[in-house]
Amino acid sequence: MHYNFDEVINRQGTNSIKYDFCEKIFGSESVLPMWVADMDFRTPDFIIQAMEKRLQHGLLGYTHVPDSYYEAIVRWNLHRNNWNIKREWISFSPGVVPALNLLIMAFTRPGDEVIVQTPVYFPFFSAVTNHHRKLVTNPLKYSQGSYSMDFDDLTGKINEHTRMLILCNPHNPTGNVWPREALARIGELCLQHNMLLVSDEIHSDLVLPAYHHTPVASISDELAGITITCMSASKTFNLAGLSTAYLVIPNARLRQIYDKMLDDVHVGAGNIFGFIATEAAYNHGDDWLGQLMTYVAGNVNLVKEELAAHVPQIKVVQPEATYLVWLDCSELGLSPEALRHFIIRNARLGLNDGPMFGHEGKGFQRMNVACPRAVLHGGLIRLQEAVSKYFEK
Ligand SMILES: Cc1ncc(COP(=O)(O)O)c(C=O)c1O
Hints:
Layout: H1 17-20, H2 22-26, E1 32-33, H3 45-56, H4 67-81, E2 90-93, H5 96-107, E3 113-116, H6 123-129, E4 134-137, E5 141-143, E6 146-148, H7 151-157, E7 162-168, H8 180-192, E8 196-200, H9 221-224, E9 227-231, H10 234-237, E10 245-248, H11 252-264, H12 272-284, H13 286-310, E11 315-317, E12 324-328, H14 336-346, E13 349-350, E14 352-353, E15 364-368, H15 373-392
Helix pairs in contact: 3-12, 4-12, 5-6, 5-11, 13-15
Bound molecules: pyridoxal-5'-phosphate.
């Protein structure tokens, strides 16, 4: 079956964060929203139909999570990631960000140090600081347009107070799919220093053609024993509004501690539609996902071609995964404040401002390209016209 990703769907007036909160976020309603990480593509029919079928029953009381949900997760991970997980390793979370917060609460104490690799998805920062733990950054190295991990810096930052490293694999916003060797080295350091490895793998299905995701916990049993992996079908199939994610925790002791925290704050029940949607996504989503990523790759190429041709001062960091494009705007020569102002006021684009991801994000903007190509093209024209007007002056 052919899926149509060119369809433009009006999301305005649906309480969409991306569309209906532009005034609040950017101080302008006229920006084209290309920021928060959900997609402007329709959630696939096989998911909507599964939810409709359940809705027709007409009664939505407290509900048990069916075995078929766990089985779908096990099968999906085996087949997509070659990762053989067991049903009992799977725990619930009402989202990956809530999970990060719960994990910090469950496994660290105030004053403990937690390492994150910047620039990185900004809720990693608040998950640490909200609970009065100490945030330690291990900035990625940026060289010749691409990012890699800095192991010398990382080794130097680990001390007796370091309890946890939060990995982002694939990495948001740089789009890295971390190679097995880098993951193994991170794992070794965590094992050596008795640190818990929390791996946010929410973008793992969204690998671009030619790339392959490795779950860090799949590398060895030893590593699986200290790793908690956070996953969800939400990014992949556009289900973020269902607030459903899962954690894979092979170590029974760690799982018990996490599940207790989940119970203590009474957020473990989930919602009927989150489970139904995840199961339908994983049972029927392969073909749709293949077509989605081909389309996203086409969009990434469009950004690269248009910018190279018309705005060569802005460089694209080639993503290996995600539908997020990290744009190096440093050659425009604007201060962080001026760049932010220029993108909103002159280009009339609603992007994520680089410094949100840590100060290494200065000079960068993050563009979400999970939209119909015509919309993306319109956004690139806005950027191109703004640059030529502004720099002609
Ligand atoms: C790396 C990463 N983790 C987590 C999330 C959000 O997860 P959730 O909506 O399940 O809290 C995002 C959303 O953009 C993300 O990019």
